[in-house]
Amino acid sequence: MLIKVKAFPNSKREKIIKKSDNSFEVWVKEKPIKGQANKAIASALFLYFNIPREKIRLIKGFREKNKIFEIL
Q1: Which long-range contacts (CB under 8 A, 24 or more apart) does 46-54 make?
Q2: Most buried among 18, 22, 26, 43, using CB within 10 Å?
Q3: Does pTM surpass 0.85?
Q4: d(Cα 42, Cα 62) in Å, to the nearest integer?
Q5: CATH code for position 27
C-alpha cells in the first residue's frame, strides 16, 4: 500500500492528520538535516498504523515536503 505524506519538519509538536484513505499530513519536531525528519516521520507512521518498523519505507521525496511511503 502506498501513502502520500506532506511533511512539516521542525514543528513545535508532533501530530498526524488523515486527509483521505492514503493521504496524511505529519508534523515532527526534528529538523530536515541528514534524514532526521524522514526517520521521525517513518516512526510516527509505524506508531499510527501499529506495524513493525521494518514494514514501512520511504519510496519518493527524500528531500521534498511531499513524500510517498510504502507499507508492506
Answers
A1: 48/16
A2: 26
A3: yes
A4: 12
A5: 3.30.1200.10
Count of residues in the chain: 72
**H or E segment and range at residue 43:** helix 36-49
Domain containing 34 equals 2-71
Report the b/e string of 29-41 with b at 16+ CB within 10 A.
Answer: ebebeeeebbebb
Q: Residue 43: what residue type?
A: S
Structural domain count of the chain: 1
Q: What is the pLDDT of residues 38-48, one digit of tens each?
A: 999 999 999 99
What pLDDT, in 10s, does the model give residues 20-31? Answer: 999 999 999 999
